């Protein structure tokens, strides 16, 4: 018998808004996701190819962080400055021609000062040439699950084939935050002085008490202004990528860009919430056992079950345990025996494995016969 046990019925009758809520944005491309649950809160042309500009530097830094984490490179190592790195235009760290720069300074030069020159220094040190490094960046992107991104340089310097999407930039941000907790803190630093020149971090969200701790801004004439940001408030972390904001590079334009991104982040935290339904190992229900040395077995959640919902959709949420009862013995602890299904109006359904909380052995031949006869005469015993 398939048993569907309703654990939480709708609290209030009537429709509730789904995840397809929208907010107007001046960005051509936009993507906002809850990092813990992977729930997409907003997407606008999120899979459209676009020039990533200096947001590309997140991948350059990711590659360098990997080298540091593996022990192939140390923060105190020094990389040589080529003439090509020294001559590059755009935003600069102002590396000296023929100099040698510490890796830690290069990280800050890329993350805080958005130095195109620092990117080339790193690329040439790790791969021999910027072209070879760009190929490695693209290869690593594929390994991380980015299917559309193509890098042609290390800095995001305009190139017709250097493209990505808002969704895939968010994936780079997520990998960086999760995989490099010892190094991610560089993204939250406000300023850095190198070669006697002090520059501030271009991320406008860092200068306000919003919970922002990264990541990277970008700008090209063709692609407009963009920002890949991460904001943590309490136990929630939101990743946002916007691009294609066409506002003037003036004090008023700067304020408008900052306000645009700030409003989107506030909206994501205000309109949505994470709801913890079960912790891994929590008992959800008890099921009868067929021909086992125990009559019942507890059913538990295999993983933490946390869902992101529009706050008003919480009223219509239902959590259902679906399993076949009785469960035939033998049963091993941790064996998948059913599933938890979470549904809310307008929200994609979530499923989580339901597992046996204990092992149950099978009765011997005589016991199985007696139990079967008892079941035929008296039905299932509780």
Could you explain the architecture of this structure?
The relative contact order is 0.16. Helix 1 packs across helix 4, helix 1 packs parallel to helix 6 and helix 4 crosses helix 5. A hairpin with a 5-residue loop joins strand 12 and strand 13. The strands form 5 sheets. Strands 1-15-17-18-13-12-16 form a 7-stranded mixed β-sheet, with no helix packed on it. It is elongated, with a radius of gyration of 27 Å. The protein contains 8 helices and 18 strands. The chain is α+β, with helices and mostly antiparallel strands.
List keywords for this structure.
382 residues; alpha+beta; Peptidoglycan synthesis regulatory factor (PBP3), Domain 2; Beta-lactamase; five-stranded antiparallel β-sheet; 8 helices; 30% strand
Report a brief summary of the structure.
The protein has two domains: 2-13 and 276-378, Peptidoglycan synthesis regulatory factor (PBP3), Domain 2, CATH 2.60.410.10; 29-246, DD-peptidase/beta-lactamase superfamily (Beta-lactamase, 3-Layer(aba) Sandwich), CATH 3.40.710. Helices cover 27% and strands 30% of the residues. The chain is built from eight helices and 18 strands.
Question: For the terminal residues, how far apart are their CA atoms?
Answer: 15 Å
Strand order of the largest sheet: 1-15-17-18-13-12-16
Helix content: 25-40%
Secondary-structure content class: alpha+beta
SSE string: EEEHEHEHHHHEEEEEHEEEEEEEEH
CATH architecture of the largest domain: 3-Layer(aba) Sandwich
* Average residue pLDDT: 89
Query: Radius of gyration in whole Å, from Cα?
Result: 27 Å
Could you name the CATH class of the largest domain? Alpha Beta
Number of helices: 8
As residue ranges, the low-confidence spans are 4-18
CATH evolutionary superfamily of the largest domain: DD-peptidase/beta-lactamase superfamily
Number of strands: 18
Biggest sheet character? 7 strands, mixed
The third-level CATH topology of the largest domain is Beta-lactamase
Anisotropy-based shape: elongated
Assembly state here? single chain
How many domains make up the 3D coordinates?
2
Give the strand content.
Answer: 25-35%
């Amino acid at each position: 018998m398939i048993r569907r046990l309703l654990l939480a019925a709708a609290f209030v009758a009537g429709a509730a808004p789904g995840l397809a809520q929208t907010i107007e944005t001046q960005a051509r491309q936009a993507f906002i996701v809850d990092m813990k649950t992977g729930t997409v809160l907003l997407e606008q042309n999120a899979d459209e190819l676009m020039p990533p500009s200096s947001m590309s530097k997140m991948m350059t830094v990711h590659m360098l962080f990997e080298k540091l984490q593996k022990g192939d490179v140390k923060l105190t190592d020094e990389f040589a400055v080529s003439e090509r790195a020294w001559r590059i235009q755009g935003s600069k760290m102002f590396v000296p021609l023929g100099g040698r720069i510490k890796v830690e300074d290069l990280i800050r030069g890329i993350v805080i000062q958005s130095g195109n020159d620092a990117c080339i220094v790193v690329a040439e040190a790790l791969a021999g040439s910027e072209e070879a490094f760009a190929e490695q960046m693209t290869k690593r992107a594929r390994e991380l699950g980015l299917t559309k991104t193509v890098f042609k340089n290390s800095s995001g310097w305009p190139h017709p084939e250097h493209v990505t999407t808002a969704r895939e930039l968010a994936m780079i941000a997520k990998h960086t935050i999760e995989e490099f907790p010892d190094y991610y803190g560089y993204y939250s630093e406000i300023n850095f002085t190198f070669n006697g020149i002090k520059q501030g971090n271009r991320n406008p969200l860092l200068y306000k008490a919003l919970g922002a701790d990264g990541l990277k801004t970008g700008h090209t004439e063709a692609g407009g202004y963009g920002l890949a940001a991460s904001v943590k408030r309490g136990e929630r972390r939101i990743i946002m990528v916007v691009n294609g904001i066409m506002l003037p590079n003036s004090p008023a334009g700067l304020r408008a860009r900052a306000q645009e991104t700030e409003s989107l982040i506030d909206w994501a935290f205000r309109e949505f919430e994470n709801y913890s339904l079960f912790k891994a190992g929590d008992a959800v229900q008890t099921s009868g056992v067929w021909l086992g040395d125990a009559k019942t077995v507890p059913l538990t959640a295999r993983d933490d079950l946390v869902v992101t919902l529009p706050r008003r959709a919480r009223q219509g949420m239902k959590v259902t345990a679906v399993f076949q009862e009785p469960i035939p013995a033998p049963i091993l602890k941790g064996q998948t025996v059913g599933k938890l299904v979470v549904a809310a109006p307008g929200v994609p359904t979530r499923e989580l494995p339901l597992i046996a909380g204990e092992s149950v052995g099978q009765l011997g031949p005589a016991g199985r016969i007696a139990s079967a006869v008892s079941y035929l005469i008296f039905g299932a015993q509780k």
